[in-house]
Specification:
The protein is α/β, with parallel strands linked by helices and 273 residues long. It is 38% helix and 16% strand.
Length: 273
């Protein structure tokens, strides 16, 4: 099994850290990683969410895309022979607006090596709402809108299924990002039905297999106080590998010191506990 961090961010992330990519890559080399995918948030449609301050923190501006690709390409060359650096994006599933995604991605299709496709937004009070912003925002703009956690979870996984179908149309290797992100605030919100989560996860297995979409085994939930567990359960990792669905560790690092976080958890899960 190649030691690969398949989900990471850079100084181009508005809610990340200003450190240079070199610091992330040096830590990856130190920890023995062989491949490192840089997967920054690409631009979003204007006023996707009705919160100007939040919008300013979510993603790159379209004007920054050339600089981002040049930046990662330069580091890819610089680390050649020490670490395989791959050029990627963490692409949001934009409900009923895949045309925007296609327009953003198309100029870079020939160089994109990795696409992590994530569901961060659901329809909610006043329009689209970010599911992983703050517990109070979730409660006000999603839970009160749908009425129950069961309905929010159901809507989330409906979008996950649509995201998998969309991922198949993107260039490079495709993975579904942090499939359990809906549980980020599980300690701060009414409990979710774990039976419902399991049933919906089981339902996506044939979709992943049919589309050739892998899974981002994202460990970031372990470092979130309101979650305290990985975003992908071990039983689901085993079910994916049994069906030939690629499982790729993702630190989802937004700071250099987060590179490699939770690797032992992923390695243990891949080895069957």
């Amino acid at each position: 099994m190649i030691k690969w961090d398949g989900h990471s961010h850079t100084k181009f992330c508005k809610h990340g850290h200003p450190d240079e990519l070199e610091r992330y890559l040096d830590r990856a080399v130190l920890l023995g990683f062989e491949r490192y995918s840089v997967t920054e948030h690409p631009p979003l449609p204007e006023k996707l969410v009705d919160d100007a301050q939040l919008m300013a923190e979510l993603a790159m501006d379209e004007s920054e895309m050339p600089a981002y690709f040049d930046y990662v390409s330069e580091n890819k060359k610089r680390y050649e022979g020490r670490l395989e650096v791959t050029i990627g994006l963490e692409i949001d599933y934009l409900h009923e607006n895949f045309a925007f995604t296609e327009r953003i991605v198309e100029p870079w299709a020939d160089v994109l090596e990795d696409c992590v496709v994530s569901v961060h937004y659901l329809p909610g009070r006043g329009g689209m709402r970010c599911i992983d912003y703050k517990p109070d925002d979730f409660r006000t703009n999603l839970l009160s809108y749908y009425g129950t956690m069961e309905k929010v979870v159901g809507e989330y996984f409906d979008h996950v299924e649509l995201a998998i179908e969309s991922a198949a149309r993107l260039p490079g290797r495709k993975r579904l990002g942090h499939i359990g992100l809906i549980e980020k605030f599980r300690h701060a919100l009414p409990p979710v039905d774990e039976g419902q989560i399991r049933e919906r996860l089981e339902r996506v297995l044939p979709l992943l297999a049919a589309t050739g979409t892998g899974i981002d085994v994202n460990t970031a939930g372990l470092r979130v106080a309101t979650c305290e567990k990985p975003y992908v359960p071990e039983w689901f990792i085993r079910a994916c590998t049994a069906k030939g669905i690629e499982c790729v560790y993702g630190s989802d690092s937004h700071k250099p010191e987060q590179v490699g976080f939770g690797w032992d958890n992923f390695e243990r899960a891949m080895q069957g506990g």
